[in-house]
Structures are given as C-alpha cells and as structure tokens.
C-alpha cells in the first residue's frame, strides 16, 4: 500500500486527482497506475484502469491467461474505486480490493452504489472490499488537490434567468 500512496502523491504533484493503485499477484506487483485523466484528457484513465492495462500487458508477455491471473490478484488503491472502476474490476474477476478512504461522490464499493456485491451475474464475479487503510492520509491528499485550481476543468456555465 505504501507504493500506492507514493503513486497518489506523484499524481497530486502532476495536477491529477491523487489516486494510486497496485495489482499484486503472488507477492509481485504486476500492474500499477495513478490517475492520468488531466494528462491524457481522457476521463477513463483512472488509476485502476491504468493498472489493469499493465496487468494485461504483463499476462501477454508471459503468455498466461488474464482470467487465471486476475482470480488470484489483489488490488490496492488509495481511494474507493468509482462505479466505473468497480464494474471493470468485476469484469476482470479481481477477488479482493483493499482501499484507503471512501469515495462519497462516486464510490462503487458501497459509498454510492455497491457494485462489488450486487447480484449482477452477467457482469463478472462479486469481490470483497477491505476499507480504511490509511484513510485519513488519503482524505488529506484529496483535500489538497481540491483546494488548488484545476487548469483542465471546464469553464462554468451560468444559466440565464
């Protein structure tokens, strides 16, 4: 989890929402990522999806099945996965997700929607969530990010009366 927090700090230093993520298989990090949304101007480049891309590459190089590896992989992330990322984790059959703080705006592991344990058989398998690891530190990084100006944020639109 230390490495995930290091990646979150790197994201913060580079103007990204401070989220870092690791995928661990047999005690080896086989995928890692941090938010890259502002850098790539692609709203889907969340830390979890970046890490899943690395996992797929890792499997391809070793000629092993993604499904087999994912079923024995644990994801560590500094903030509760959003609904989109939680759905992706189900599709990849990741069995355990360990995260820092809750995501009260977009959380997909129970804070907003519980994608992790919803009865949705066509969308992969349910996964276990373990919350609260270094939650206060994760929240402080998020507060730091949201206090600063986001140069990539769209200009606010005011409604005409």
From TrEMBL:
Primary enzyme class: hydrolase
CDD domains documented for this protein: nucleoside_deaminase
Protein name: tRNA-specific adenosine deaminase 2
PROSITE patterns named in the record: CYT_DCMP_DEAMINASES_1, CYT_DCMP_DEAMINASES_2
Enzyme Commission number(s): 3.5.4.33
GO cellular component, one term: cytoplasm
Cofactor: Zn(2+)
Gene Ontology molecular function terms on file: tRNA-specific adenosine-34 deaminase activity; zinc ion binding
Domain CMP/dCMP-type deaminase: 1-120
Role this protein plays: Probably participates in deamination of adenosine-34 to inosine in many tRNAs.
Family: Belongs to the cytidine and deoxycytidylate deaminase family. ADAT2 subfamily.
GO biological processes: tRNA wobble adenosine to inosine editing
